[in-house]
Amino acid sequence: MERIPSLREVSEAVHGSGWRLVLGTLQTSVPAGSPARAVGLAADAVEVCGDDADRHLRVDVRPDRVVLTLQSSDEAAVTARDIALARRISATAAASGTPTGPGIGAPAPRSVQLLEIAIDALDIAGIRPFWKAVLGCTDEAGADGPQDPLVDPVGQGPALWFQQMDGPRAQRNRIHLDVSVPHDQAPRRIGTALAAGGRLVSATRAPAFWVLADAEGNEVCVTTWQGRDG
């Protein structure tokens, strides 16, 4: 089994090289300018990682950039190997004049992020098989219990997790989104959401998450890795 550092250790180890810890993964973005350049940058990342890329590196090639994700598929967590790979990739990218960073860029600037869908349920074990089937999800590594989250096996769609309800609840949405962002981007993301007509419902669990709502009460959580170690 590979060593799994604490969340704080992971974040501090890669922050200066342009990677961010987001929902149990390391993510970075490399601007490319063209599809051909993006493919070349992706190939560089795979080459510099060598065999260590297997079951660790995921590459998302876009017309103007490459988004890279590191996580052990076997551990469903960031390991010491992933930290080493992040540093190796960043050094190679910097040498080619394209440094790694958390920003996605224009026309809608934002950071790297991951999306989860949360479903409130009275009987999680009873509804989990339905959502697993209808979304084509699979169990996360090491988490195949009747109440565990579900993930997209190819990493294209959001993860799905279930929140236990104590009793029936009316006049409140029972499905909400969790937007996982880099910890240093959360204040700006929350500020822009509030300026756009949202309201802060709760900050009692910050910086792990803040609960926001739109003008009609539909809720979303902005989450970070902080406050989750231990």
TrEMBL record:
Superkingdom of the organism of origin: Bacteria
Catalytic reactions on record: (4aS,6R)-4a-hydroxy-L-erythro-5,6,7,8-tetrahydrobiopterin = (6R)-L-erythro-6,7-dihydrobiopterin + H2O
Positions of the Glyoxalase-like domain: 117-223
EC number, UniProt record: 4.2.1.96
Pfam families: Glyoxalase_6, Pterin_4a
Class in the EC hierarchy, top level: lyase
Keyword Lyase (UniProt): yes
Keywords associated with the record: Lyase
InterPro entries: Glyas_Bleomycin-R_OHBP_Dase, Glyoxalase_6, PCD_sf, Pterin_deHydtase
SUPFAM superfamilies cross-referenced by the UniProt entry: Glyoxalase/Bleomycin resistance protein/Dihydroxybiphenyl dioxygenase, PCD-like
Gene3D superfamilies on file: 2,3-Dihydroxybiphenyl 1,2-Dioxygenase, domain 1
Protein family per UniProt: Belongs to the pterin-4-alpha-carbinolamine dehydratase family.
Record protein name field: Putative pterin-4-alpha-carbinolamine dehydratase
Organism: Kitasatospora paranensis
